[in-house]
Amino acid sequence: MAEFYFDEIIRVHKVDNQVVYDKVSRIIARSEVEEFYLELDVNKEIYPMLPGEKYRMVITNTPLMDGSAVTCYFPEGKQKSLADKFEYVMHGLSYKMSEVQVKTDDGNSDAKVAVYVSFGGLQLLLRGDPLKVHKFKVDQKLFLLLRKI
């Protein structure tokens, strides 16, 4: 079975189309349950996302249902894949993790961990509770899968 590092419903709060590249939008979103904050670059021509929309977002180390690692190209339809159940899939590499202090509503600060992943130039910043992001490691191959709800 594939191991999920992140599996949440996210709500898009803002879409920034002024990113450096013409076909890229940066979405600002929050998860509904675990209070994650994220910024994600997506190809807006392939997968447009709008404020207020909800998506299921999964980050895993392999898209294969049996949990085996992806070592090479495999013909479509020959192996069960999580990608079959999602609309938008990216493959990338985590390149940085850092602790950050975030201001809370009551004026205090709270320690969070920020995870940075590059998907061939499209970036993800995922910030959340250190206990919830403990599976992430630097230089780890990851798959991000999105499906509109």
Report the CATH superfamily.
Answer: Nucleic acid-binding proteins
**Overall tally of structural domains:** 1
| Proportion of beta-strand residues | over 45%
β-strand number:
8
Q: What's the N-to-C terminus distance?
A: 23 Å
Uncertain runs = none
Task: Walk across the major sheet and give the strand order.
Answer: 1-2-3-7-6-5-8-4
What series of H and E elements makes up the topology? EEEEEEEE
Q: What's the SSE blueprint?
A:
Elements: E1 4-16, E2 24-31, E3 37-43, E4 54-60, E5 88-103, E6 109-119, E7 122-128, E8 141-148
Antiparallel strand pairs: 1-2, 1-4, 2-3, 3-7, 4-8, 5-6, 5-8, 6-7
Task: Give me some keywords for this one.
single chain, 149 residues, mainly beta, OB fold (Dihydrolipoamide Acetyltransferase, E2P), eight-stranded antiparallel beta barrel, 0% helix, 52% strand
Task: Give the structure's gist in a few sentences.
It is built from no helices and 8 strands. It is mostly beta strands and 149 residues long.
What does this structure look like?
The protein is mostly beta strands and 149 residues long. The chain has one domain: Beta Barrel (OB fold (Dihydrolipoamide Acetyltransferase, E2P)), CATH 2.40.50.140. It contains no helices and eight strands. It has an eight-stranded antiparallel barrel. Strand 2 and strand 3 (37-43) form a beta hairpin.
